[in-house]
Amino acid sequence: MNDDFLFSEDEPEVEVTEDEEPFQILIVDDDEEIHTITKMALSDFKLDGRRLQFNSVYSGSEAKAFLRDRDDIAMTLLDVVMETDHAGLEVARWIRQDLKNKLIRIVLRTGQPGQAPEEDVIARYDIDDYKEKTELTYRKLVTLMYSCLRAFRDLNAIERNKRGLEKVINASAEVFSAQSMHGLCQGILEQLVALITHSDDAMYCRAESSKTEGLTAATESGSLFEIIGGTGDYERAIGQSVEEDIDWHLVQQLQDSSNHVEFRIHHNNYYGLYKTKGERQYLLFIKGVRELSELDQNLLGLFVNNSSIAIDNLHSRDIERAQQRELLYSVGEAIDKHSVEHISHHVKRSAEMAGQLAILTGATIDDAEKLKLASSVYDIGKVSVQMELAQRADALTIHDYEEIMQKVIKGHDYLSQTDTEIAHIAAQVAQDIHERWDGTGFPSQKRGQDININARILAITSQYDAIRTDRSYREAQCMESAADYLLQHSGKFFDPELVGLMLDNLDAIEKIRQRYPDKR
């Protein structure tokens, strides 16, 4: 039988793009002729439409140096006897034990089988095959390549699936964190794409149909779809709108369908669209997919369906948290209210600024969110003070002032009675918000970093916004004046490092003020 046709019917014909990544093969042998013969024999070999790309080294030490910098090698054809009688065996042991590379397929080749008996080598070393050079004919070499590269392909898919599952588990454990939606999308997407399609490039997109009545695939001003998960070429595009690669006419056809879940494979690209009962649509796009079985298609449909439901649930929780935050802001504004006709968002702005400043210090998004909520209610002690001031017409003495300020600090006692994390943070803020960096504040004359970090942050943002806000006794001052005040009192009233961060990021701080203007 002619060896040229030995495997002609082994693999189905696969339509691939010209830039399909080749399998990387490492030849390790001190005989130049072995390199030449191997490359010639396998010059036309393909698996899944992927060719082979050969890399050559000539000793065990060269092999180690090469593999330290490369993690994309699918298979190595490794000579046993090179600079020493067991150089190849040492490389095989080093790859598995020291480099901890379990994916690369290792085939030992030897011209001197007596130096390393096959049974002993197979038992002691984690290798995939052991061949004598004299027995490795063209047929056996091609068979060897198929078996090893298929194993590498499938193990690689399993490894990618494992990483995807880890992301899903991590996302579910942090379901309330700001990054959980991204983690959930990314993890499920990587798992599914690796297992079913063997493609590297996929994106999962979301569109809000409430943006326009009768959602269309794209408008003249740009795409309505935002990438919420991506692999390969799209991994760095998360958060951006979809601009390229998509056939928008095809997407429009999917949108016009009466089915909730609809998919098409067009030019080797997969399009799957899911429409929720609410106002959102989800698009799964996978580039360069192979022919999919009915089971694969059903799994992709389930992914688009179920993942969109999970994301919608997370989105609903985010909305609920935002509503709770707004309620607390309203309570805080009521505590801080200056007049019936004046609606001030001082508390909301101060809290949002405090969250921004906390992130600049290295706090997590979750911790910043907790600070924003606590900032809304820490000043609850003002309620009794405002009632007392409303009943007095005479001027306050120093004694009266000190007594009233003690009631302001009493907010700590009120909040400490509530056993929640937000109330605990608010109580700490209420206790320390009137302390000063130089130790001249009250009630305990704390100084420096002994003052609670959240109280130090809010003292700065609250003072800055107060200066920038209209009061009954003065008009709002400009950004420069407010910044000068913080700078003048840096190291006295305020933490100098925090003041520096605040002043370095005033543009971002001012954008927060613009989002929540006061109303009369």
SSE blueprint and pairings:
Layout: E1 23-28, H1 32-41, E2 52-57, H2 60-68, E3 73-79, H3 87-97, E4 105-110, H4 118-124, E5 129-132, H5 138-173, H6 180-197, E6 202-208, E7 218-219, E8 222-223, E9 225-231, H7 248-256, E10 261-266, E11 269-275, E12 280-286, H8 294-336, H9 346-360, H10 365-375, H11 382-390, H12 398-409, H13 411-416, H14 421-432, H15 453-467, H16 479-488, H17 496-504, H18 506-515
Parallel strand pairs: 1-2, 1-3, 3-4, 4-5
Antiparallel strand pairs: 6-9, 6-12, 7-8, 10-11, 11-12
Helix pairs in contact: 2-3, 5-6, 6-8, 9-10, 9-15, 9-18, 10-14, 11-12, 14-15, 15-16
Count of separate structural domains: 3
Number of helices: 18
Low-confidence stretches: 1-18, 171-179, 209-222, 338-343, 383-396
Overall radius of gyration: 33 Å
CATH topology of the largest domain: Hypothetical protein af1432
CATH-defined architecture of the largest domain: Orthogonal Bundle
Order of helices and strands: EHEHEHEHEHHEEEEHEEEHHHHHHHHHHH
CATH superfamily of the largest domain: Hypothetical protein af1432
CATH class of the largest domain: Mainly Alpha
InterPro entries: CheY-like_superfamily, Cyclic_di-GMP/3'3'-cGAMP_PDE, DUF3369, HD/PDEase_dom, HD_GYP_dom, Sig_transdc_resp-reg_receiver
Organism: Idiomarina aquatica
GO molecular function, one term: phosphoric diester hydrolase activity
Keywords: Hydrolase, Phosphoprotein
